[in-house]
Amino acid sequence: KDLDSFITGLPKAELHLHIEGSLEPELMFALARRNKVDIPFASVEDVRAAYQFSNLQDFLDIYYAGAQVLREAEDFRDLASAYFARAAADNVRHAEIFFDPQTHTDRGIPFDVVMEGLLSGMAEAEQAGVTSKLILCFLRHLDEEAALATFKQAEKWLDRIAGVGLDSSEMGHPPAKFARVFAAAGEAGLKRVAHAGEEGPPAYVWEALDLLKVDRLDHGNRAMEDAALVQRLAEEQMTLTVCPLSNLKLCVVKDLAQHPIDAMLEAGLAATINSDDPAYFGGYVAENYRAVAKARGLSRGQIAQLARNSFTGSFLSEAEKAAHI
Ligand code: HPA
Ligand code: ZN
Questions:
Q1: CATH number of 3-324: 1.20.950.20, 3.90.470.20, 3.20.20.140, 3.40.630.30?
Q2: Whole-number pLDDT of residue 1
Q3: Is the CB of 56 under 6 A from ligand 1?
Q4: Region 112-134: what's the mean pLDDT?
Q5: Which atom of ligand 1 is nearest to 170's Cα?
Q6: Catalytic residue among 96, 198, 199, 207, which?
Q7: Tens digit of pLDDT for each residue in 136-177?
Q8: Quick check: 298 and 261 in contact, CB under 8 A?
Q9: Helix 227-235 and helix 202-210, axial crossing angle in degrees, nearest 10
């Protein structure tokens, strides 16, 4: 079998996917029309041409602008349905998807509208054989009070939310800023994850572990700069949700040929491959596997290990994991 079909054929879990980042330009235009929302683009080609980023913030500015077209529950359902269709084509069997409620509630969209739409897309996907869980992300460029208020809004939905996460602008917004809301989420029995070490220093990864008590680490690239930290992550078998095409597009790596994915595996880290914001970064999960496998010359054994790690690192029960591996 050729490498492409080997990769597509592997059963996978996706553990780092921002649902708002799966908004393809075609759907953005359709929703802008349906909801009579103005967008600063003349055409789909115009949108794609704007997707050239020199850092995380560059991307976030355009990602938050795109999300403005999402207004009704059916918009969130259509967004989720479109993602699950792409994921199923890549043989994704389970997805743990991030959503950013503050991006929506701050422009007057009720929290419940977001939840109802996403849950409806997830229920439809489950019928088609793809299971999923939701992870509520707090926007770290906003203050902790705002995160606590969002967590309060989520209260009645906690049986439908698997965990909390932390995303948006990393530099200047260390995990320590969110220690209280993460403690509250832990008290409520939720899993905890956080983006750390994408642009931020190893110290932010230490904080995510020690202050936020994360169950999984999102990105974690810069942990590789700190040998003691690598040792800690390996000892704890902490899952890292690595996103190769995101790393390339946001200039976290200069070139995929310099991507640390195999160095992570060789250091004994529980790395996984994920798409982050596939509509913006040029590829869904299988394309992330393919691109980094070719650039780094990964063996089939390494590729299969990455796919296995995605189930091991998921928030499925041990019995559910065993059924996938
Ligand atoms: N990093 C931080 N925040 C994000 C990202 C990311 O890669 N994608 C969507 N929000
Ligand atoms: Zn992300």
A1: 3.20.20.140
A2: 77
A3: yes
A4: 98
A5: 2
A6: 198
A7: 999 999 999 999 999 999 999 999 999 999 999 999 999 999
A8: yes
A9: 30
